[in-house]
Amino acid sequence: MLINGIRIKLNDMVINHETALLVIIFLIVFITRILLVFVVQSYKTTRDWECGQIARNVLNGNGYSAGPGWIANANSPTAHKPPLYTAFLIVVFYAFPDEWTPIMPDNLARKSHLVVQMLQSVIFSLIVVLTYLLAKEAFGNRSAIVAIFVLTFNPLFYHLHLQIERNVYDMLFVVLISYFGIISKYITSLRYAILLGLVSGLSLLNNPSFVLIVSFTILWTIYPINVRKPGKIFMKLFLPGIVIIAVVAPWTYRNYIVFKKLIPVTSNSGLELWIGNHAGASGALQNERLQNTDELPENLRSAIDGLNEVERYQYLGRIAVSYIYSNPFDALHLRIYSFLQFWFGDFHWHRPFSTRHLILG
Q1: Which residues contact 134 (CB under 8 A, 6 or more apart)?
Q2: Which of 42, 147, 211, 339 could pair with 135 as two cysteines, CB 3.0-4.6 Å apart?
């Protein structure tokens, strides 16, 4: 009894010590992020973009619609962006309203953007804590310390919580999917199967490109496959899949009602392909010249006039595929340039590397 009592006390001490450590980690990360918010003050200059525009349109009574901007008429129904991060912005913008006009003027929203950045600071701090727990479970204490050090002090992550974008949520879902995936790998549990499916479905409503991460994780949980245990396969493979479908289905149904086409989450794949693959493409990020239909070439403008968003994007996707087949070397050149642009920021072939661009890019 005495030995058991000593063990219980030691276990309580370990738990209390780890809890204190996690609280300290959270506070350090949160304080550094909040300091960045008020030092950089990007909430004074950040513009509503994509999800932010859609959120403003919803609150202005225009429904889940795009515009002005992109290659679309103002306030037309959209599936250009997935709904989860937009829903987060709708809640914040509703609770903390700012004066705003739909032309993205100089008197930009400030209070709502500040609240978004502060909430994303909390989320990022939670990500670091969850990463510590995940790395400790998978690789040990030393790896966990290295992981939180990299996340906390790596300059490449300093700007994530400052962006009015879904990137922080992407990181959160990566950690959660990894966590529940590892548990589901070694424990056959109804609860964890449902949680893995729920988190995976929500991740797709935040970023549909997560389909590869989700698919790999779920398949990994049943590897190697033992056909003699069909209950285990159902619990680890089919049950999470059913939950994912249940989570995504209402949004897919909305898209079908609006556009009369099967669009699981977003419609913009053709547009994104065209942005990087056409005669005027530069390999850089989308810029002002692509924001308005009036700035497109006359032949392309007339071709997409009268089409809804899905039809426009599908038409642009076909043009992009045709361009790639007709100009394979030019397309390869654009991919190399876009790779450099993505990793090194505002990069140009004839411009020397800048330390600032390497850090902030």
Answers
A1: 147, 175, 178, 179, 182
A2: 147
Q: How many CB atoms lie within 10 A of CB 288?
A: 8
19 vs 25: CA distance, rounded Å: 10
Residue 247 and residue 200: Cα distance in Å, rounded?
9
Sign of the torsion formed by the C-alpha atoms of 229, 235, 236 and 242: positive
Token pair in block for residue 204: 């797709």
At residue 296, what is the residue type? L
Name the helix (H) or strand (E) containing 69: none
pTM of the model: 0.81
Closest CA to 180 of 144, 247, 133: 133
Q: Where are the alpha helices (DSSP H) in the chain?
A: 2-40, 51-59, 83-95, 111-139, 141-153, 167-186, 190-206, 211-221, 230-233, 239-259, 269-276, 298-304, 309-326, 328-344, 355-360
pLDDT in tens, 284-294: 654 444 444 44
210, 248 contact by CB (below 8 A): no
